[in-house]
Every structure is written in C-alpha cells, then in structure tokens.
Amino acid sequence: MERTNKDNDILKWKKEGGGSLRAKVNGRIKIIKPGEVFEAKLWEIPESMRDVIVPVDTRSKAAVEAAADPESIPPGPPAVKNEYFLKHRGGSWYNVLDVNEKVMNEKALKKPAAVELIESLTA
Q1: 66 and 90 in one domain?
Q2: Nearest Cα to 63, choosing from 48, 44, 79?
Q3: Domain of 111?
Q4: How does pLDDT run across 91-119, given as a tens digit for each residue?
Q5: What is the model's pTM?
Q6: How many domains does the chain have?
C-alpha cells in the first residue's frame, strides 16, 4: 500500500547548488543537503531562497506560480511577541528573563540596570 499525503499544503522541493542549508521545515530545524528532495509548505520557503530551492513535481510548480499573487499565500504562523521579566536572584541582584525563561544578561544586575535592559530589548 502506498502512503499518501493528507496535508494538501505540503509540496516537494529540491535543494540545488552547493553547500547545506539550515531551515525550519514542518516545525523542526532541518539541515538540507545539496540535491536533497524534501517536503515543506509553501510559506516555509522564503522568497529569497527560491533560486536555490526549487519545486519538484507539477503540483508544486503550479502552487508556486499561483503564489505569485501575495494575497493567495496562506498566512504563516503568528509572530511571537517578545516579553521580558525580572527575576529576583538574591540580595539586590536581578536577572532578565524572556518568555522561555532564558537569561538575557551575562551577570546579575541591580534593579535599575535590569529595568533599563528590558526597555532596550523591547524598543
């Protein structure tokens, strides 16, 4: 029995040229090697890479040609808003954390310096 693709948005692409490319495909970071055929949605392939990554089958080519109209491309994932928080470290020292709880400062900061860092990151 042959497997079929249930998601009609997924198209087949081929990486041409030399060198490998890191790209987010189907929600994961993937290393795409020269000559490799892979599946990805149309909006996952940036316009700037269309000279190196080309559609393989006729359905993919038709979808790329239809996408020449910018209104016909389905919207990509929503943009994530960057938010930063203060976390008390002890004494009078603070860390600046992002939404994923990654520490944004190298050393512990005093509160005014931490607030200033948050303001510079959100600006």
Answers
A1: no
A2: 44
A3: 84-122
A4: 999 999 998 889 999 999 999 999 999 99
A5: 0.46
A6: 2
Q: If you write DSSP's letter for every residue of 46-107 in order, what string do you get?
A: -GGGTTTEEE-SHHHHHHHHHTTSGGGSPP-SPPPPP-EEEEEEETTEEEEEETT--B--SS
| 62 neighbors 76 (Cβ within 8 angstroms) | no
Write the CB contacts of 50 (distance below 8 Å, at least 6 apart in sequence).
64
Supply the Cα-derived Rg of the chain in whole angstroms. Answer: 21
pLDDT tens for residues 11-28?
888 999 888 888 888 778
Whether residues 17 and 53 fall in one domain: yes
End residue of a domain, out of 30, 50, 72: 72
- Both 66 and 28 in one domain: the answer is yes
